[in-house]
Amino acid sequence: MSEARVEKLSGSLWNGGVSPFGVGDKKLGMWLFIVSDSLTFTAILIGYSYVRVASDNWPMPFTIYPSIAFASVMTFCLLSSSVTMVMAVAAAKKGNHASAVRWILATMAGGTAFIVLHLYEWMHLIEEGVTPFKNPWGDPLFGGTFFTITGLHMFHVTSGVIYLGVVAAGFGRKKFNDEDVEVSGLYWHFVDLVWMFVFPLIYLLSVKMG
Amino acid sequence: MANAAAHTHHEPTTRLFLWVWVGLLGLTGVEVYLAYIHLNLHLMVILLMVLSIVKAAMIMAYFMHLRFERMNLVLTLIPAMIIVMCLMFIVFPDSFRLLNMRTFH
To answer: Do the Cβ atoms of A192 and B59 come within 8 Å?
Structure first.
């Protein structure tokens, strides 16, 4: 929503159409979705912490190489893709369509790299005998919580890459405006933000001792 | 157009975003280092959560543009979210009870 329109609506306090937040409806909608989705992730991370605290043989199987090294590179991919998304939003705001689409494609590349590395990491664990129902080391809930949390996050990354692809195609053909790019950026940064909690809680707190 | 010009001074620069990115990578490096040197698990949880909350705040403030939005929007979204998150911590006494039942079984 353009600033002029926001100001116009804010001025008409008793005539309907007030915009107290000074953002467009799409952006406010995405923020409300992000708040509710963050509570979903909080719930499953607290659920994981609950069963882990209550367990007396929770496995701590991750070695610095390959698991932690992979997860660190994945963190790097996601953080860098957030910066390219910021650049895409800035280019879109300036009305530079070609540049915005290129930055969105770079963001999608970062997200895809994350998914590929994460699937490789999953395959590695599955080969070692970890499933949602059992693992070779201890409490069977380890696999259940690991695959649920990383799986839900990976689902968010995957849908984010598809969402960005749709926005890039639409913005390139001028079907979408810069607010659509900004809103998709909000979602992408949120996916990045969630990983900032999943990475330490799932990986760094389960590093093999000695 | 005068309106648009008045709003440009709010807009953060590319340099600022790159510094935020460097800061986030640096904090991630510190987290991985903490895991590498094998700290005591309780201390580790506290340090990692503090670092993660700082990182989350940086992402929300700069990448998600919240620092440059109206305070009204921030106060509507964030405090309610944090309060509901804190309410979920009510499950932990039960978690400790389960652990103690196991130990003294």
So the answer is: yes
Among the partner residues B44, B51, B56, nearest to A205 by beta-carbon distance: B44
Chain A residues 3-22 with CB within 8 Å of chain B: 3-4, 7, 20-22
Write the pLDDT tens digit of every residue in A6-61.
555 555 555 655 677 889 889 999 999 999 999 999 999 999 999 999 999 999 99
- Given a contact cutoff of 8 angstroms between Cβ atoms, the answer to whether A116 and A70 are in contact is no
Instruction: Give the distance from residue B30's alpha carbon to the nearest chain A alpha carbon, in angstroms.
Output: 11
Chain A residues in contact with B55 (beta carbon < 8 A):
193, 196
Residues 164-193 of A with CB under 8 A from B: 182, 185-186, 189-190, 192-193
At A5, list the tokens: 């329109």
Domain positions in chain A: 24-206
Overall CATH class of domain A24-206? mainly alpha
pTM summary value: 0.91
Those residues whose C-beta lies under 8 Å from the C-beta of residue A181, and which sit 6 or more positions away, are A88, A89, A92, A100, A104, A167, A171
Question: For each of chain B's 105 residues, which pLDDT tens digit applies?
Answer: 344 444 444 678 999 999 999 999 999 999 999 999 988 999 999 999 999 999 999 999 999 999 999 999 999 999 999 999 999 999 999 999 999 888 654
